[in-house]
Amino acid sequence: MKTKKKTLTIAGSDATGGAGLQADLKTFQEYGTFGMSAITSIVTMDINDNWSHTIETIEPEIVERQLDTIFAGGKPDALKTGMLGDIRTIAVVRDAIERYQPKNIVIDPVLACKGTAGILLSENADSIRELLLPVADVTTPNLVEAGILSGLGELKTVAEIEKAAIILHGYGAKNVIIKGGRRFDNQHDEALDVFYDGHDFHHLKSPLVHSDNNHGAGCTFAAAITAGLANGQSTLDAVTTAKAFVHAAITNGQPFNQYLGHIWHGAYRDNGRFKF
Predict the structure, then answer these.
(1) Rounded to an integer, what distance in angstroms lies between the CA atom of residue 107 and that of residue 82?
(2) How far, in Å, CA of 15 to CA of 46, rounded?
(3) What whole-number distance in Å separates Cα of residue 182 and Cα of residue 116?
């Protein structure tokens, strides 16, 4: 049997299985890679309080031991970060990257949970900017995160998104993909993401899916890029495939309860489109 590529997620746990490390591991397997995980936090929702979110962080020392355990088996072929939960954990992750020198690092700079009022974990922005963007092969902020990390605030136009991408690239990220998606009012019935490699911009478009079954889309997008890189795709090809993967997953999403619905990670495979 052909040896499988190894992929790692350093992220929070979503008990519903739709987002966080659960979404990452599902995506990794869909891409034919062997997924591993280091848990940084546990997110739960209060069914008696309008599905309000609570984040319980894992002690950074435990995160460090998880990473040491994982890297004892050799370097993964690609890794991603998601919700890190604690600025001390961000430092732990940066230290592990320096010690083990993995390749294909995807930084998903999670600052908020979908469905929450306002920004969660915004105190992590400075640490992500200073410690993780300089080692990122790809970073995948959404509009809100890109606005905070770049210091530009709310991004409303393509020109503003491109300016934010240039700023984030200036912090050290080799490639920047800013997810506009359905949040960006581009006056067209399409989801627009902006990719910047330090030289050229690529506007990646797909038909806008009008669905509330989109829980986990951002995590899955970053995980799909990670798995694509592990499988040897170029960065632009990995991003393009990831966008198609997520579009199929949202299109075939399933309701979970009255508050949210999940994307379906098997949709791209169901359509017979994988060749890995």
Answers:
(1) 7
(2) 12
(3) 17
What distance in Å separates the CA atoms of residue 273 and residue 78, rounded to the nearest whole number?
Answer: 22
Q: How big is the chain, counted in residues?
A: 276
Q: What is the mean pLDDT of each run of 10 residues along the chain (276 residues)?
A: 92 90 96 97 82 84 98 97 93 98 97 57 86 98 94 94 98 96 60 95 86 79 98 97 90 74 80 66
**H-helix or E-strand containing 94?**
helix 87-100
If you search the block for the tokens 């990390």, which residue do you land on? 149
Residue 234 C-alpha from the chain's centroid: 18
Residue 7's nearest CA partner among 191, 258, 195, 231 is 231
Task: Find, among 189, 219, 223, 218, the residue nearest to 206 by Cα.
Answer: 189
Please state, in angstroms and rounded to a whole number, the distance separating the CA atoms of residues 99 and 91.
12
